[in-house]
Amino acid sequence: MATAPSSIHLLHQDFLCPKYPRLYHNYQFGTPRLRRRPTGTARPPSRFPSFAIREWKSSTEESESSGVELLACPVCYEPLIRKGPPGLNLQAIYRSAFKCKKCDKSYSSKDIYLDLTVIAGLKEYVEVKPAGTELFRNPLVSFLYERGWRQNFNRSGFPGLDEEFKMAQDYFKSAEGGVLLDVSCGSGLFSRKFAKSGTYSGVVALDFSENMLRQCYDFLKKDPTLLATNLALVRADVSRLPFPSGSVGAVHAGAALHCWPSPSNAIAEISRILRTGGIFVGTTFLRYTSSTPWILRPLRERALQNYSYLTEEEIEDLCTSSGLINYSSKVQQSFIMFSAQKP
Predict the structure, then answer these.
(1) Is 82 within a domain?
(2) Into how many domains does the chain fold?
(3) Cα–Cα dist 216/212, whole Å
(4) 241, 73 contact by CB (below 8 A)
(5) 164 is in which domain, residue-wise?
(6) Distances (CA, A) of 190 to 80, 132, 153, 322, 331
(7) Is 88 exposed, middle or buried (0-12, 13-18, 19+ CB in 10 A)?
(8) Is residue 266 part of a domain?
(9) Residue 31: exposed, middle, or buried by beta-carbon count in 10 A (0-12, 13-18, 19+)?
(10) 297 within domain boundaries
């Protein structure tokens, strides 16, 4: 039976788990705004992986790829034209240049990830996202996330990384052999597990945070077997996913939904890119569960009214209203893992 959170638990939420939004009790999610970069402000230096330093050469080996490209323009949703070696792996993508034939916008990997955000290439303006999104772009937060931060979620009912991975794999049985997209992947703790399992033809680790993707690459470098897998790092916005409609067989979102400024937009996007029979699996913190005493529910509603902590019923409603079917879930304390399928 759920009980009121103790002062120690609330302290844990505020300082150890900033995916809990209590830090932002005075913040209202709003429309992203643009601010002008101060004149003379230097851009941060790029960090290149060793194999990405090579200049692209127009050779037979690096000719324009044939076939339909999985990656798409986040503006037009059209498959990108690639110049470079084919493949959904680090070396192939970082040695390639991408362009949208419809809007003529170019995308390249000038860092350890491929930037497929709408704001990629902006020169004069910087887009400011909600505080909950900006927090995870902080290098310190990115560094700490897999070094004790995520493990503290166990106090709220999360069963641990190995068990969560096993549960997700059970849901993804019908998606084996296809491409898996790990949205809001953070430091890639699940992306690496999915890639190393050999279950999928390719894994895309996707996050809006540049520093989370850099942390993911730092972990990848420590395991040569992972560098050889079909694993790509892509920067993108979950509400504007850079994939054609009906192109992906599996989407995973671990401890992410409550961090999205608009869960409805994000789930609608996930539904759009899933192919027929594709599976969406996510985990998050619940606002309250069916076992929470009715007398405590108004208190939790009031405390979390400005944030994306949902109930079981709300998550199911979001999935079904986005055209997904066969919804199912497993709940433990405040933890929920849910699954839905594209018809």
Answers:
(1) no
(2) 1
(3) 6
(4) no
(5) 109-116+125-342
(6) 27, 21, 15, 25, 20
(7) buried
(8) yes
(9) exposed
(10) yes
Please identify which residue in the block is written with the tokens 């309250």.
288
Q: What is the pLDDT of residues 82-96, one digit of tens each?
A: 999 999 999 899 899
270: amino acid identity, one letter: I
What 3-state DSSP class applies to 283?
strand
**Residue pair 90/231 in contact by the 8 Å Cβ criterion:** yes
Q: What DSSP assignment string belongs to 183-238? A: ET-TTTHHHHHHHHHT-SSEEEEEES-HHHHHHHHHHHHT-HHHHTSSEEEEE-BT
Side-chain-side CA neighbours of 288 within 13 Å: the count stands at 21
CATH at residue 205: 3.40.50.150
- 1 in a structural domain: no
State the CB neighbour count (10 A cutoff) for residue 98.
24
Rounded Cα distance between 208 and 239, Å, is 10
pTM for the model stands at 0.76
Please state, rounded to an integer, the average pLDDT across all residues of the chain: 79
Q: What is the pLDDT of residue 307?
A: 59
Q: Which residue, 339, 313, 291, is CA-closest to 167?
A: 339
